[in-house]
Amino acid sequence: MILPGATLGVLGGGQLGRMFTIRARTLGYGVVVLDPDAGSPAGAMADRHLCAAYDDRAALEELARSCAAVTTEFENVPAGVLEQLAGHVPVSPPPHAVAIAQDRILEKRFLAEHGFPTAAWRPVLSAADLADAATLGAPAILKTSRFGYDGKGQISVERVEELATAQQRLRGVACVFERRLALECELSVVLARGRDGALVAFPPAENVHRGGILETSTIPARVPAQLAQSAAELAAAVATALDYVGVLGVELFVADGGRLYVNELAPRPHNSGHFTLDATATDQFEQQVRALCGLPLGSPVLLSPATMINLLGDAWVGGEPRWEEAFARPGVKLHLYGKREPRPGRKMGHLTCLAATADASFHLAHETLQALERR
Ligand code: ADP
Ligand code: MG
Questions:
Q1: Is residue 50 included in any domain, yes or no?
Q2: Does residue 98 fall inside a structural domain?
Q3: Ligand 1 atom at minimum distance from 207 CA
Q4: Which of 93, 124, 214, 234 is the most exposed, fewest CB within 10 Å of its CB?
Q5: Same domain for 320 and 214?
């Protein structure tokens, strides 16, 4: 066990790294952040910010030397970097799991090999694969295999005749061509798994996306109890098959009359798990610390129904939001990530809205966001 007083390293300095850093420091650990951005949200909270590229040799050596264990807040660390670090210090999530989760083709192959349901898909590595992919039919979505997030790197294909143009628009990079499902709803399960295989899942969240970006997560999900149970079991089976250690976000689709499909895996805390900062006995960042340090995992019990609503840069168009509207509402908890530039679609913060029922929390979230915005 790595106990408080030790120093932990995190690759990546965005909001996920920031919330990890705050939690780890609250628990008495030191934190070193590696991120190339001098103004990174996590760097500002850390004991030390190594401002360098993720593959900077000297910075990685320093991280390995000064930290008792290292984790990551994002999946796009260059392949090999985690592997290299793992030769010197304990690293979680495991490099092999990050390699799978950062590449949609490897991810979908892994899911298929283990019999986990996904939307029908084909790999498109080059123009030579277009004819085979077109047999899948439409409507469908062409997604870059790597580096996509918040719906970026995706093109909707309404008719297969549009596929070749879509592939060119994505500059011919490796892609996944995937049938678009008629979604009944989206769920996600954030879970933690220890080195000993112990697994603790938070209650499934019901997610609404707008323009490819997560808008709200509501807990408990307003779906039949049996479906929520199946979602939790499916996510746990995926984590176990991956031999995962750390916090994992499993995004799920519900379609075809209540059937579950795995959408994608995030080898880190997940935006849809932010409600745990205010609504569960242990939050996802504490679980990340616990899994990394070999501590027992904490209780995921839900203390109150909640809706997390993201604060995107769009909320700043009319000026600084009216924060007093958030503070005026009991049960509304404000989280801001310390980003200076509020660009449209950029995640600037979130609200967790606690209420007596999931419906009431969902309503409170939208009502508060509207009141905040100066329009
Ligand atoms: P990202 O990495 O950007 O989160 P996702 O693959 O999760 O990419 O897609 C973002 C969102 O787009 C999903 O949460 C869902 O709302 C929608 N979407 C993606 N793939 C499909 C699909 N096959 N069928 C229906 N909706 C989809
Ligand atoms: Mg997603």
A1: yes
A2: no
A3: 14
A4: 234
A5: yes
